[in-house]
Amino acid sequence: MTVFEYDGRLLVVDCGVLFPEDHHPGVDLILPDFDAIRDRLDAVEALVLTHGHEDHIGAVPYLLRERRDIPLVGSQLTLALLGSKLREHRIEKPMQAIVSEGDRVSFGPFDLEFVAVNHSIPDALAVAIRTPAGMVLHTGDFKMDQLPLDRRITDLRAFARLGEEGVDLFLTDSTNAEVPGFTTAEKDIAPVLDRVFHASDQRIIVACFASHVHRVQQVLDAAVTHGRKVAYVGRSMVRNMGIARDLGYLHVPPGTLVDAKELGNLPPERTVMISTGSQGEPMSALSRIAQRTHNFVSIVPGDTVVLASSLIPGNENSVFRVINGLTRLGAEVVHKSNALVHVSGHASAGELLYCYNIVRPRNVMPVHGEIRHMVANADLARAAGVPDENVVIAEDGVVVDLVEGRAQVTGKVDCGYVFVDGASIGDVSETSLKDRRILGEEGFVSVIVVVDSTSGKVISGPEIQARGFAEDEARFDDIRPGIVDALTKAVSEGTTDNYQLQQVIRRVVGRWVGNRLRRRPMIVPVVLEA
What we know:
Strand order of the largest sheet: 7-8-9-10-11-17
Low-confidence stretches: none
Helix content: 25-40%
């Protein structure tokens, strides 16, 4: 999510989500922090969406909860995919403007021109933002596939034309900046899929991202060639492919699609399932199939499973767990490590250099990537002739000013993560997550003690309950006298406040568990008066 400001007015480009990692237990989604603009939402002229992936549109419903009438600007497919998400959040009839490559529209002081770019989802757009302060060119996510399935290439002629006019700040996709050369073309997957289909004499299951229309198209084409029926498995896959088909982005030959529940009535060698779950998501269709908990799909020896997607960093263990589960059930698993069944949707270093040489920007700010990717992208910009002082690396919350043709960091706003946990938005703090990690990794000990309200003497307990320990609870009998002695001493020294007595228990138990059991559990002491 990037916010541009000119003369007190704001333009937002993209508003996506992060997905939780292992150190975010219980978290469903991670949103951008809107605090920096929350009291200025009335100044937002529009929200421009470069394409329909979750990391670019996933947080839009949460922003619209704060101001419903923000105009949404994007391509036909992007806004259609967003529309289904908004309806799930009960947001009806948002203000929106459908744009295509070549269109030029204005919102307040921001004059926007849209440029076709190629990505792993159709209808992606770059956006040139003209203001009296200068022109910014934001590529969004892109690559330079010269033979894409939909024949819609990244419009380098438009990039060159904008470069001739003068691009003051170039925001470029950094995801593959460390990868030398050029990204492999999507069409190169087709022969590999054909060989997989030819070699399989039983059912085939293909798992990919639910938004990867081109990948699904290639699977459909291979299925038709080999006389197989196709079914979608997974709610998001069914929804997104239905939208893509209705809008003409996905071409489904008549008689090819069947309901997933009907596949059981067909010979296995005549069926293909296209499923979600290529990242090992616990509740996805493929994960449930691997765990034998899916309600109507079961793996039998000889089935073929194709993981036709990249391995997102942080998901390795989940994906390998699914691969192992499928292999244990007798399936042959084809994935990126053993076959060319996936290509990236992002420009590699060679393509980025082409863009720098074509656009010749005055300033460059790498975006969309971890810090190592942005640093690698910055090095490419310098290699292409952009002066070192005109290359800006900005992480979340950094403020960059473009003044008189020069971009430079001028400040930082408070900017953290906002965690979504069920119906709770923003209530889960880092402290809560730390508590959850301790509970998950170190266990839990509760200690209940009843003391006389007059004398402070322990009259019942300590009652100790432990969870998450291999040791029997009787193991904690050794510490009971120590707790009583510590409380007696504290009371004799004048400590009568229950909170302070609880802290005494926490210190005694924590020290004992650390020394004896080598653990650091969550300790919850309770002191009751009688």
